[in-house]
Amino acid sequence: MDDREVHDELPEDLDRGFVGAYKFPDNKRRRTTGLLYLLVAICVGTWALLVDGEPVLINRGLIFGCAALALFGLYSLLAGRAFGLDESAALVAANRAVGFPVGHASAQLGWRGLTSRPTWKMLVYSAEDPPVNRGLVLVDAIDGTIVEFFVEENPEDWVQTSSSDNGAESSD
């Protein structure tokens, strides 16, 4: 099969025809589930401790399960901090960190640490054609600080994909 015949596309059942900027869901949605976990744990745990007698359904496992659910609910409330900046603002912060004008870029949202702190992972290329430099920048999604960054000369050979003749060999 020729390389020109190979292309990626979504299967029809997944393709919704969406065109435009993708809006990443905010982390604060975790608060809702955390609050529900905590509420269920408190209600069931309170009921289990206040019931007279020894019903079959109430034992140490149920109490342990309620405690574990309450702890996970508290963790979800702690990890559900709202974003302080979106991917566009993270790109601006990454542009300042790398020290060269950014052309093409890619954003990925990840989480770091025990508290699942949201972090933008920005892969950036310089604005030249073909790009001379590239960098990877980690931007904290809550306060916009630069967590880490790495910049290097672009080791990729982009001569065949370049729209200009920079570095192309002459056939004369």
Give short descriptive properties of this protein:
172 residues, alpha+beta, Nuclear Transport Factor 2, Chain: A, 4-stranded antiparallel beta sheet, 3 helices, 4 strands, disordered C terminus
What does this structure look like?
- The protein is α+β, with helices and mostly antiparallel strands.
- Among the domains are: 29-79; 87-153, Nuclear Transport Factor 2, Chain: A.
- The chain has helices at residues 29-50, 60-79, 87-98; strands at 102-112, 117-126, 133-140, 146-153.
- A four-stranded antiparallel sheet has the order 1-2-3-4, with helices on one face.
- It is elongated and about 80 Å long.
- The model is unreliable at 166-172 (pLDDT under 50).
Summarize the structure.
This protein is α+β, with helices and mostly antiparallel strands. Helix content is 31%, strand content 22%. Among the domains are: 29-79; 87-153, Roll (Nuclear Transport Factor 2, Chain: A), CATH 3.10.450.
Straight-line distance between termini = 32 Å
Question: How many DSSP helices?
Answer: 3
Rg of Cα set: 25 Å
Category by helix and strand content: alpha+beta
Q: What share of the residues does DSSP label as strand, in percent?
A: 15-25%
Largest sheet: 4 strands, antiparallel
CATH topology category name of the domain at 87-153? Nuclear Transport Factor 2, Chain: A
Number of β-strand runs? 4
Strand order in space, largest sheet: 1-2-3-4
Q: What's the overall average pLDDT, rounded?
A: 81
User: Which oligomeric state applies?
Assistant: single chain
Helix content: 25-40%
